Amino acid sequence: MEIAVLRGREAFEIEEVDVPSFAPDEVLVRVVVSGVCASELEPWVEGPPDGEVRYPGHEVSGVVAEVGADVDGIAVGDRVGVWVTERGFAEYVAVKAAYCFPAGGGPLDEALAEPIACAANAVEAADVRLGDDVVVIGAGFMGNLVHNLVALRGVRQLIVADARPDALERAAKLGATRVVDVTRESLPDVVRSLTEGRGADVTFECTGTQAALSTTGDTTRMSGKIAIVGYHQGRAREIPLAHWNWMAFTIVNAHFREVATILRGMSIGMRLLAAGELSMAGLVTHRFPLDEINDAFATLRDKPDGFAKAVIVFPEP
Amino acid sequence: MEIAVLRGREAFEIEEVDVPSFAPDEVLVRVVVSGVCASELEPWVEGPPDGEVRYPGHEVSGVVAEVGADVDGIAVGDRVGVWVTERGFAEYVAVKAAYCFPAGGGPLDEALAEPIACAANAVEAADVRLGDDVVVIGAGFMGNLVHNLVALRGVRQLIVADARPDALERAAKLGATRVVDVTRESLPDVVRSLTEGRGADVTFECTGTQAALSTTGDTTRMSGKIAIVGYHQGRAREIPLAHWNWMAFTIVNAHFREVATILRGMSIGMRLLAAGELSMAGLVTHRFPLDEINDAFATLRDKPDGFAKAVIVFPEP
Amino acid sequence: MEIAVLRGREAFEIEEVDVPSFAPDEVLVRVVVSGVCASELEPWVEGPPDGEVRYPGHEVSGVVAEVGADVDGIAVGDRVGVWVTERGFAEYVAVKAAYCFPAGGGPLDEALAEPIACAANAVEAADVRLGDDVVVIGAGFMGNLVHNLVALRGVRQLIVADARPDALERAAKLGATRVVDVTRESLPDVVRSLTEGRGADVTFECTGTQAALSTTGDTTRMSGKIAIVGYHQGRAREIPLAHWNWMAFTIVNAHFREVATILRGMSIGMRLLAAGELSMAGLVTHRFPLDEINDAFATLRDKPDGFAKAVIVFPEP
Amino acid sequence: MEIAVLRGREAFEIEEVDVPSFAPDEVLVRVVVSGVCASELEPWVEGPPDGEVRYPGHEVSGVVAEVGADVDGIAVGDRVGVWVTERGFAEYVAVKAAYCFPAGGGPLDEALAEPIACAANAVEAADVRLGDDVVVIGAGFMGNLVHNLVALRGVRQLIVADARPDALERAAKLGATRVVDVTRESLPDVVRSLTEGRGADVTFECTGTQAALSTTGDTTRMSGKIAIVGYHQGRAREIPLAHWNWMAFTIVNAHFREVATILRGMSIGMRLLAAGELSMAGLVTHRFPLDEINDAFATLRDKPDGFAKAVIVFPEP
Q: Who's near A108: CB < 8 A, 6+ residues apart?
């Protein structure tokens, strides 16, 4: 089968390797879609250390091709989202049956189990309550996913902020009760005016930038919650802690590494997706075949107008 | 002004009394709608003790007519749902400004703040989680309200059971993912088949009957929750506690008497109603003028086909 | 090695069997103590079905004798409490390394991991808060364990009720702030007088009887919690649900079957025991060698004065 | 009566003013102790704006001298801790009856209701669980209070860090399971070695310094909690958010401004104090009469060896 291997700076190559073997408690999944994750961008740009190679790819859905001897409850032909940590840009992956979740009858090329799990865990950790006012800063792919799940929780208002007109347009289509172009309006002012001066019950920071992080302290009500979804790489962030402490904010870092938590988020998200309660429509904006994987990563790097998410799609046999 | 006074068995009379005075922290509200609550039925049927009278009525919405000297943030003409504990079947009520909640621009004759508060508190207390499977037993007015609020919480399935075809029809219109006529199907069997044998994460008991209560133990998953919304009057209920203990159920009695909790539920519910996120469409099935209040109660007693809720509506001036 | 096998009514026999083999992820534990659980009494009295035998015993602590090839972090000679579901009345048990918890340096014949896990989970599920007033009904072994763990949670008052003078004496020694002999005093009256008329924040029911269960509704404050620890075998229990609903009680069934929950409770309890923060002193009242196991069960059946817990103790080699 | 008024830099003066009048729902309290709060130090050092004066003092306990006409449940002679926001360095304060909490029979000069409330709320917000390992950084007065309340919650280990030998000595006397002199040892190393490499379940930051804040990220386990009790005045703090996000920390700002929350913390703390479950012994280290209030503040500023807390004590009549 074919698999993408990262051999240098911005340089995936396609290798021919054996289809992976699988243990008695595993299944073999024919990959239909494998998402390009923002966290993989920097490793692609910089390439692996000299003399080493990498096999990334962890946002995988597909169709069960074979099942291990001890596997119950999953059958050949089942459509599933799966949890793998690498080697996902390939025609097949081997994965524990317990890490597979039914994908229902919708389009598999949008059934990106891993980011859905992350977003579901973020929304659960932030514990959005009935009637809350919620702000989502950042209307990229993760912001959109958080947005879609927050919208399922019975909030009063869902205010989405971004600096890109195309992202705001997408957020409006997804049903934001208000979109805010931060290049034209003050987000804290808008939030105050929409919340009787109180601030939002929960603010989700989905950009990973210092500017957005700083803003959260002015959009959130006293004793409210700030959920940090964006990945704040690079230098330390500055937080005006005297103010945040005075406001009694709870800060939730919505990024979970424990397997049980990841699987719980995946189960929740895939249940909703399979039941048609969660829609991913419009979130996957760019599709590439495996042999154009470097173009897929370049698209993520360049973020052309209208970009939310690039994926590798494999041809149906 | 006119007010309904209960003077005997099934015998309201309309009295002429002074418009109530109001304190500096209160407002005077011209009543638009006053709901007939099931808990008031028995007192109406039995009448007050000899020589006494009663002034019931606690499900009130209307328009602010005058405001006390110390009142901020509420103005004459505001449309509000309010919390009163009696004397609500009247043209005017006096109520603390802090007990008034904006009703938004929708139809006031459906803005029944008190039962909305009860249902909101029930759903919050049961802590419905993202992706849950939920069963609601009883598709009367309170069951419908719980249904509508659960539907806002991002559940996977919302299974509604009743024995009345008209109630099930209404539940289906409200968006139940499955309705179960318990005279024709076994609810536990249906739930098991829809939940991979596991049972529902939460079951709401909204009937007040022993039979429905008994059923909840067979529709709920291990370590799941049973929320008791129905009012279990009369003799003690029998619970197979060895089984319930084995199943590690948590039982939530969703009936709150603390003022802070009631006001919190009312705030949540009215925020959602005013924002158009919660709909009451179709739940108020029977409307009467004040001088037909005995007919309104008789309708509640007789529950004709299609009945969910009777209210007293006052003519706009 | 020797193992106790139940072959008839009140009839254990001691069998000679092979020391169990163990898998690569398991360890072999030389048993030091194996507790007699109240849930095993009825099976002993009634005996197994004709032609069948039983190997009970699930409250086991001991010393690691051998470790499987894949086991990390546990060594021969480690003193551990373990989770097994049967075959615990034996000289050796084989158990997954993940089901073993360090027992510290205290007396192993009191390190009964399984009931400690149950009690820890009960106290965690009831979510006792700082400054709470707590009632424990039943001062037998499980009541004592719950008592000891509640006492670690920073409560204001810990009121213990029982009908047996010896049990109340033990509760007083364990530090109850008040003991109540229910044959002489009204527990609800005492609780009201000690809680400014409010009732307890949490009541733990640790007897399994209808009478105690009925009492909990009169000892618990509005919106308080009733934690059911006792096992309510036999006929259905009667609950005055109209009253309980009015009082907005939450009822927690503190009996968990999910492996992850059991292991979490065991981890918590054994951490506290090993650190010397939780004491079991005085709770094991009767000790027997394996060949007197029928006497141990008879003692549980007869509950002589001063009885709390019988265990089988194995001689040190 | 006498009251301290701040008129300039480090310049309180004692004024003679009328005993305050009190409303029907208030009581008049003869002050016994009034604590000097660290948050008042900077205003004392800098003095009020030109032409203005200040009447600080908000950590007050005393004896009820008179009660308003509408007050129930409090009587003249009752010993109480109270919530006031200013004018506490005075012989009398007028305060709502609802803001008074029984102080029990212990020494009133240690019954500092307001800081006890803050610490109780911090420990409740951090939700310390049974068996947790807890780190407290900072063994000053607030750190000691947090320490004492955490010790009531059934933790396994309570590790206290400071740089001052006298503070560590006091922490050891209060029962820390381990004290760490951060000038001699690496706190993260110690914590790792005591927690099987995992880190603490909860770290309380009680110093208000960047250095301690930075350390919390290395003492707390994945998905653990960081509770910020210290007041982080001055410039913004730097937080390595990529690491904190990876570790999925929840950050609790334990500083509450909502009246209901303050009163709840005060109720909890004073219940425990009055019942003798919470001890303040040894935490009040320096006592001054009202006319030496500038010395009291200077002592807080200079923090002599052995200093934890200065209070103003009023002579018993």
A: A32, A33, A61, A62, A63, A79
CA of B302, closest CA in chain A: separation in Å? 34
What region, left, alpha or beta, does residue A127 occupy, with left being phi > 0 and alpha being psi -120 to 50 degrees?
Answer: left
The tokens describing A188, both together, are 């804290």
Residue A255 has its nearest CB partner, among D248, D251, D254, at: D248
Q: Of D314, D268, D316, whose CA–CA distance to D91 is shortest?
A: D314
User: Helices H, strands E: what count in chain A?
Assistant: 9, 16
* ipTM of the prediction: 0.94
Q: Alpha-carbon distance C6 to C49, whole Å?
A: 11
Burial group, residue C242, by CB count within 10 angstroms (0-12, 13-18, 19+): middle
Predicted model pTM: 0.95
State the Cα–Cα distance between residues B211 and B220, nearest whole angstrom.
15
Looking up tokens 């994965």, which residue turns up?
A95
B268/A155 Cβ within 8 A: no
On whether any CB of chain A is under 8 Å from the CB of D242, the answer is yes
Q: Which of residues 121-160 of C touch D (CB under 8 A)?
A: 123-124, 129-131, 149, 152-157
B 5-44 near A (Cβ less than 8 A): none
**What residues form DSSP beta bridges with A54?**
A6
Chain D hits for C267, Cβ within 8 Å: 131
Question: Under a CB-based contact definition with an 8 Å cutoff, are residues A17 and A1 in contact?
Answer: yes
Q: pLDDT tens digits, chain D, 317 residues: what are they? A: 999 999 999 999 999 999 999 999 999 999 999 999 999 999 999 999 999 999 999 999 999 999 999 999 999 999 999 999 999 999 999 999 999 999 999 899 899 999 999 999 999 999 999 999 999 999 999 999 999 999 999 999 999 999 999 999 999 999 999 999 999 999 999 999 999 999 999 999 999 999 999 999 999 999 999 999 998 988 999 999 999 999 999 999 988 888 999 999 999 999 999 999 999 999 999 999 999 999 999 999 999 999 999 999 998 76
Give the residue from C130, C147, C156, C263 with the most D CB atoms within 10 Å of its CB, the best one to mutate. Answer: C130
Any chains having at least 3 CB pairs less than 8 A from chain A are B, D
Helix (H) or strand (E) holding C40: none
**8 Å CB contact between D156 and D132:** yes
Percent helix, strand, coil in chain C, to 5, is: 30, 30, 40
d(CA A128, CA A63): 34
E strand segments, chain B: 2-8, 11-16, 26-35, 59-67, 79-83, 92-96, 100-102, 133-137, 157-162, 178-181, 200-205, 220-228, 237-239, 250-253, 286-288, 310-313
Q: How far is CA D117 from CA D149, D259, D284, in A?
A: 11, 11, 16
